[in-house]
Fold:
Amino acid sequence: MTSEPALLPRRGLMFVLSSPSGAGKSTLTRLLLEAHRDLQLSISVTTRAKRPSEIEGRHYFFRDQDEFRRMRDRGDLLEWAEVHGNFYGTPREPVEKALAQGRDVLFDIDWQGTEQLCRDAALAPDIVRVFVLPPSFRELKARLERRAEDNPDVIERRLRNAIVEIGKWFEYEYVIVNEDLERSYEAVRSILIAERFRRTRFTTLAGFVEGLIDEGEALLGAEQPARAGTVRP
Ligand code: ADP
Ligand code: 5GP
Structure:
């Protein structure tokens, strides 16, 4: 079974996953990337310290504040934001390259970055926004503690920020309450697949339909009455 609309070329989509820290978006991102090799992760630049489990260039590009500012001021970042006291940004070039080739790009960015991307009229039609919520605040706290990658004051700060972040749910088209991981993964994967088939993403659909109708008319040997107004929106 394929998740890719065959034959017809289409625009690449920008698949954005956001959530308060600990709700599970990195886990869902990893599962999506494992199953969809054609999906490209946008690897962000950050000034935050590397966690023990993280790899430079795979999870993030870890840079100091001076280098981050240089990148930002040169216009190398598609969006950037301060999150939990550190800077994070999306390198522009890999994203633009992937989209130009009709590839889909996955973004693990916060609501501030998502808002910035959506303000760009050229990008907005290609953006799909998914927000991940925890089943309860208590569980969010427990997940951050179980993950055991941040020290207690970092966890405390992230939980306080979560209150503001959770309030951004209405800026996203899709919301998943991540209780059971398998079900959440099925949901996020279904959204990706469905969005790939959105009519407006196909770049040659009108011509394809015209061709189908021409073929139908030739085959049936007569002009069919339904033709007028049905080919181009
Ligand atoms: P985020 O990227 O949103 O900060 P993570 O993906 O790192 O969150 O998840 C935080 C912790 O919660 C991780 O230890 C992860 O294994 C765990 N986790 C993720 N989803 C679930 C779930 N549905 N049920 C239980 N634990 C989960
Ligand atoms: P973490 O430190 O847990 O990896 O990420 C903290 C937060 O920063 C998460 O909400 C994550 O989505 C967000 N984030 C990661 N990269 C970027 C980025 O490039 N831009 C923005 N705006 N947020 C990011």
Observations:
- The longest strand covers residues 77-83.
- The beta strands are 14-18, 39-41, 45-46, 61-62, 77-83, 86-91, 104-108, 127-133, 174-177.
